[in-house]
Amino acid sequence: MNLKTQLQETDEPRQALSKKEYKQKLYQLQIELVKLQRQIIKSDDKILVILEGRDSAGKDGAIKRINQHLSPREIRVVALGKPSDRDRGAWYFQRYVPHLPVAQELVLFNRSWYNRAGVELVMGFCTADEHEEFMTSVLSFEHLLVHSGIKVIKYYLDISHAEQKKRLENRATDPLKQWKTSPIDAQAIKYWEQYSAARNEMLARSHAPLAPWTIVHTDNKHEARLNIISDLLGRLDYKGKDKQLPEPDSRILFTYDAMCLKEGRLAP
Predict the structure, then answer these.
(1) Are 118 and 200 in contact (CB under 8 A)?
(2) All domains of the chain, ordered by start, with CATH?
(3) Is this model's pTM higher than 0.70 or not?
């Protein structure tokens, strides 16, 4: 089976992938990622991939499958913790700047400066003025990055209320996932509506042609991962690309626009 037959959009209901099918498709896409990394190194490219979303939306899993077989010297995962007192006294974007990609690098941000538009706003970790200053300056910052030669790709991983609750409950009881638990988990459910409102404002005010948002439905983790990787590969040119690469399924992954909310394409 070649890649052209995989992940294609049809008018028929999606059938759940078997574990074997998922692994086969993931393997073929990961081969393409290795080709892509070779090109990034050869061409001195600078690629920044931002993954945002609610707690348990699948950011860790997607990042793991992207970097699983890539050279650790040219790929970095950035997941910053709680800001220090020094960070809080600095220009907001300053703590992120040292982690931006340099030539020959692919950098994956597991959450990013958009913390200020989500968690910080909802949990009261920033003031209304700080939030507004961020929202009015973030696109200017990202445009500077793009004009400097950094390719910025932004994914928002969207999860339903019921699926998030199930995953958080599983996280609390699974001994191998204890490192993921935090006091914020309970607040994610309690403040669901506030997080939705913050997400809606963030997407509406930080989506632009030079730095657009791509939405990914993640209730099905396997489909979400495959579609993210397929989309990432489709956005970038590299030597030896499989010409039969599938298009992402638009029911799972699509570019944000103002109609998304009116049409109910995001979790309420």
Answers:
(1) no
(2) 19-80+95-262 (3.40.50.300)
(3) yes
